[in-house]
Structures are given as C-alpha cells and as structure tokens.
Amino acid sequence: MACEWYSKEDIFMNFLFWVNIIALLFSFFVIGAVLGAVFSQPIRERVAKLLHLEKLLLNKSSHNPILRPGRHPWNAEAVFNPGAAVLDGRTHLIYRAVGTDGVSRLGYASSPDGILFDKRLPYPMYVARTPHNPAHHLRRYSPMRYPSGGSWGGCEDPRVVVIEGRVYVTFNMFENWMLRVAVISMSVEDFLAERFEKWEGPIILSHGTRDKNWVLFPQKIGGQFAVLHSIIGENEHRVRIEYTDDLTTLKLRDFKSPDPQKISDKLIAWHVHTRSAGPPPIKTTKGWLVFYHANDAKEGHRYKLGAMLLDLVDPTKVLYRAAAPVLVPDELYENHGKPGIVYAGGAVVRDGKLFVYYGGADKVVCVATTPLDEFLDALIHGSQPALTEEYKTEAD
Hints:
- The protein is of the alpha+beta class.
- It has one domain: 5 Propeller (Tachylectin-2, Chain A), CATH 2.115.10.
- The protein has 5 helices and 20 strands.
- Strands 13, 14, 15, 16 and 17 form a 5-stranded antiparallel beta sheet that branches. A 4-stranded antiparallel beta sheet has the order 1-20-19-18. A 4-stranded antiparallel beta sheet has the order 2-3-4-5, with no helix packed on it.
- A hairpin with a 7-residue loop joins strand 16 and strand 17 (318-321).
C-alpha cells in the first residue's frame, strides 16, 4: 500500500483548520455561557433590581433651595425641615426657623404648584410656650458652635397631617429641659384663614427625657389616632405604633420608644444606623409609604433618606424596604451649613406626582419629586432585604 506524504504546507494548513474549529467552538461556548448567565433568572432579577433602583432616586428641583433664611431676626439664621399639606389647591409648608437668638420657631409659606412659594408670612405662625432652653439662657448663641440650631430651644422639625377637618402639627419641643414630642391643632377653616392665634395645645405626647420625631398617620386607624413613634422595632420587619382615642393620655402610658443614639449599629438594607421617620406616612394602594433617615457604614456622618412600605392592615409590619437611599446630600446647598444633611419632614401627592420637602444642610428648604406609581413599582421590585416566607405569607 502506497504511503501518502504531506508537505509542510499541507500540515500547516491542517493545523490552522483545526485551530479555527477549536476557536469557533470555544467562542460558541463563551457566548452561550454569557447569554445563559444574562438570561438566567438570578441575573435577570439582579439587572431588573438595578434598573428599579435608578427609578427610586428622587429628582431634586432646579429651583432649590425653594426657601432661604429671611430678613427678620426670628428667621435670619436658617429655615429648614418643613412639614407639608395640600389644602384648597395649594401646598402649605410649616417650617422650622432659627433666629439670631438661636431659638427655633415655626414659619409658614404656601404655593399654587408646590415649587414656587409666592406667600410667606413675615412673622412666626407658632412660638413654643417655653422658647428658651434654661441651661443656655446666660450664654450667647453662636451659629458657629451650633450650626444646626439644634438643642438650643423652642420647637423643632414640624410634621403636618389633616385628620377629620383638623390640621395637626407634631414637633420636638423643650419642656423643663427635656426634649419632648408635642402636638398642636386647629380647624382647617381657621388654618386657611391664617388665624394662627387659634392653635390648640400644645399637648405633650411623649414621656421620656429625650423623645423626637414622632409622626401621626394622616387618618385614624380602627377609629383611633395612630402615632408612629419609632421605626426601630423588635426586628427589621417591624416599626412601633401606639393607638389612642385621646392624644392627651398618650404620655401616661408606659411603652418602649428606643432612642436611636443608644441603639447599636446593625446592617439593614443599605444603612447601619437607623434614625427616625421623616414625613408622616402616605397612604397608597400598595401600602403606607414611609421615608426615614439613616446613615450608612461608608459615610456615617451624612444623613440620607430611605423608603419603605408598611402594611395597610397592620402598619407595624414592613413589607418592602428600598435597597439604596432615595435622596443623598450631594449638592452644594445640602452641604453649605451643616455638611451632608438631607432631612425630610413633609411629603404630599399632587396629580400623581410625589413631592418630598426637606431641609438641606440645616439651612434651607428644598424639594424633590417623582411620579408616585413609578416610585412604588421601583420600591417593590427593587426592595431589600427580601421578605422571609413567614412575612410573605402574612403579607399575602
């Protein structure tokens, strides 16, 4: 049998042929693996979550800051941390104002569109009955030593709700050198007529030596007032709510309301240090929408805003929690003053759009907006951590 002899050129060409075949097969394998990963369920869910997280970011208004310190002694140092309500087609803000004496008072402004505030009172709408902190009455207020105006005296950080024809404002106030939560109220009719001398109260709601940032739900639940007094529950799936027929009796009760400053850090979603609720809860078809303040591990000195949904039937239950902050202090007006602060106190919905009002750098009033339905969808589908089967069953 004759032997076939191959030239070096034939051998080289055969070598190239098989190299190309192997390379082609390897390419098919790599591309297949990549496509398999991209279209696999876990990867698809992760990509979807990232896309939803983008929609969770609130859009800061180009008009920010929408309110700045005034020209009067009572509001010359800072105006910030507003509460908000929509009544008679206008957005009404009740904001914290710090005067040259360091005392915090409540100011008022209103707007036809929620962005441009064409009305602003030149005098306070409310002054605390004990405006001065007794421990500081012999000292001179210094905005350099006390850049936020906090803990000097007066009433701080109002939140506003309207319940059954009455406007309720909760705020932090000094009472015999104890930081308490108080509430004042008046009829909607008197409020719209700006008869602010008719405020009823204050009623002291809390009983500890340092209580802050309690908020009322904007409607009664089970026929009772519902007070969200702590977003730090027994576990990360719970918040703390007290129900009462009579707000005047709440301070007589013995219930636990943890001080965030005394709670050890714990990783929950994106943050390690949980602080307090922001605006009063907003009722949606998906649940009670609650914004809250927290700090992450990387930038523990900066206040950032988180979001979660509470169950409509049992609002102590957290259904979903955003996996990333929805508002962060990265603008100049959020750092010129007390650096790294966004602090929300008011949120309203107008024509399907969510408006969140917040203080920037403890100095100015700002607003951020987003379509409500898109935000809720992003919150639900981009939530973290996932609910356990136990909680999913209860939620269903």
